[in-house]
Amino acid sequence: MQNGYSGKFLQVDLTAGVCSNISIEEERLKKFIGGSSLAASLYLERFDLQADPLSPENPLMLINGPMVGSGFPGSSRFAMAAKSPQTGIWGESSCGGNFGPELKRAGFDGVIITGKSPQPVILSITNNEASLLPAADLWGKDTYETTDILKAPDKNIKVLAIGPAGENRVMFSAIANDKGHYIGRTGLGAVMGSKNLKAITARGNQAPGKADEDKYKLTFKAAVAEIKDSAFAESLHLMGSDAAMDLGTMTGDVPFKNWSASEDSEISSKLSGPSLSEHYLVKAHACSNCPVACKRVTAVKDGPYQSDEGPGPEYETCGTFGTLIMNSDLAAVIKANEMCNRYGMDTISAGAAIAVSMELYEKGIISAEAADGLKLEWGNMEAVLALLGKISRREGFGDILAGGSVSAARHFGAEALDCVAHVKGLDLPMHDPRGYHGMGLAYMMSNRGACHLQHAAMGMEQGMVSWPQLFDMKEDYDGQTSVGKARMVFNAENYGILGNSLSMCHYVLYAVKPETVRDAFNAITGYNFDFNDLLVCGARDWTLKRGINNLLGITVKDDVLPKKILTAINEGARAGSVPDMQLLRDEYYAIRGLTADGIVSEEKLLELGLPELRDKLYKK
Amino acid sequence: MTAYNAFTQEWMDAWKEKINSSKEYKEIAKEWEGSVSITVNADPSRNLPETVYMFTDYWHGDALEFLICDAAKAQTAKFIMTGDYARWKQVAKKELDPTKALMQGKLKLKGDLTYVVRMVKTINKVVDLLTEVETIFPDGD
User: Fold this and answer.
1) How far apart are the two ends of chain B, measured CA to CA in Å?
2) Each residue's pLDDT tens digit, A471-507
3) CB nearest B117 (choices: A229, A230, A243)
4) What is the ipTM score, two decimals?
5) B105 and A247 in contact by Cβ < 8 A?
6) CA gap A198, A160 in Å, rounded
7) Nearest residue of B to residue A461, measured between CA atoms
8) pTM of the entire predicted model
9) Is residue B140 a part of any domain in this protein?
10) Domain span at residue B124?
11) How far apart are the C-alpha atoms of A305 and A440, rounded to whole Å?
12) CB-closest option in A243, A265, A463 to B104
């Protein structure tokens, strides 16, 4: 097809062992574009929302956007979605790498997987064909080994694989794309494991068509020039996402000691992007067709935490296995990252669960005996690395943490629950809402639970971007005020979610002008969307997922920040600062069209063209 | 407090004095080594008819050479920052954070960005101290 789409989706029934093709009507594509937005529309229409997340009835969906495979910078991302075993609500995650473009080259816009295979299998997709292959010999192997084995016949095969954590249904298990890119959040690796699906491979040689190749080339050139001119992109190229550590420490964005302590630049400076580059960087690495090349390839050649050359830690991981647990040894962070990668675990939730354990240990709620003899003292990386293995195997104390931090805390009582920083069951990423109140609202309202990627609030509030051509916004927000942030978050969601539907990396979305993104999208699809059309797609996505969550029981009671964040820190960059949760939520509800109970109003559902959701939510 | 006309040698001297009087700066900037030039693009509509070049030099917590200079001297600095007058004025009045201005492309930097990121606290302190200098801007406020 000449509009960025392949024109067909692969449907896989693992119980029956049958693969078939389906098409999606163009009207739906125009409304939801792609990625998790399209997945949510299919989920609402075709599946049982009440199904247990780890049951055969819960679908696992993998969906591209129309820009994937076009070669446009930052457009290699793809989304996976399902009801989350970690949170029990809408779950989704996306990653860059190369699987999305390869799936497109193999002839598919997405894959919808249901059922459960009686035996471990691999889903192999090659040029319009799909088959299920036995994988018993791969079961138990980590993601790196599995990937190496599956790529051995042809290094151009692209791999998605789970590790032992997904097999053992660790609730925050991840899915690895070619070792270095992760579908990390909301536990979708466990959904894949519950289906006995060890891996998905893709290989193809079909170039996706574009509606207007000449116009596309102009937008491509513009995007590359804008990236080259962007200090933000340059900082990512030089230091990776961990470029955020130094500035974040200074402004109160980086959490310390399980969200309880003020900043300690002695620790964070040793974990920062410049330190990573100076001591452990082997080379920068790029997702498919991306000139930013923000990914790090690292190695630790000596000392107790030696690790092979491989994908290095992102900023989030330097937070969870660094500042959050008061560890300043970057080599140990790299080792923990490698272990999570191999086992297939989300580094945010794994680190968060361990940080909670350390606080409970300090408070005497957990003893060393209860923790299998491990002394869970702050910064004890030997204990951390031992725990990661135990979690992935669901062994001893690790089995308790494998349920996630909320589940683990419940095991230890009410006081323990106060130690968990989460929204709707998903652990907070490493950005402190006491430093940036808008982020607090964005966490509260993100449809997959606390998230820094379901919106562009970080870019806007921290001043990485300024988009006056899209909407009314300040170029320099005061982070530590809640006034006026509801509108900012609303706008940030609509544009950030749009980026996700397009399957665009937010880093590129920040570096490239909105006009260029719009023009590239139109050149590829042949549509003629203006900014308003695009932002309405973002708003529709948010509302659709909120409605799904409403059907799953989410109401105003769930739109809350954790006690950790509502407790001020007395010194440092965020001293005395606490988001005004009530103000933020009240203003946001009014803008977003939610009732006082947090339900999407009928009027808003009809305004955004979601009558099916209206019917289900209001039982018409 | 004495007020100084922006982009004059007297104004730069006052800024340098603020920096060298700051104990906090000395502590924060103890690892900073090197010079920064600032280019303020001409804006006749705002009463800045010609581009202004400034050269500032710092070493381990001390401000050294602070000069209004020519383009050639500005080019010799370790870091070269360039921007429109309106943007620099926003920075000098603390209405726009210099790091944010850099990330948003409103100011341009030539030099080692990794070093700047590591030393961002130092840069912010230098700007903070500039905002303490009573300044009369070319367009009046």
Assistant:
1) 16
2) 999 888 999 999 999 999 999 999 999 999 999 999 9
3) A243
4) 0.88
5) no
6) 9
7) B100
8) 0.95
9) no
10) 4-133
11) 35
12) A463
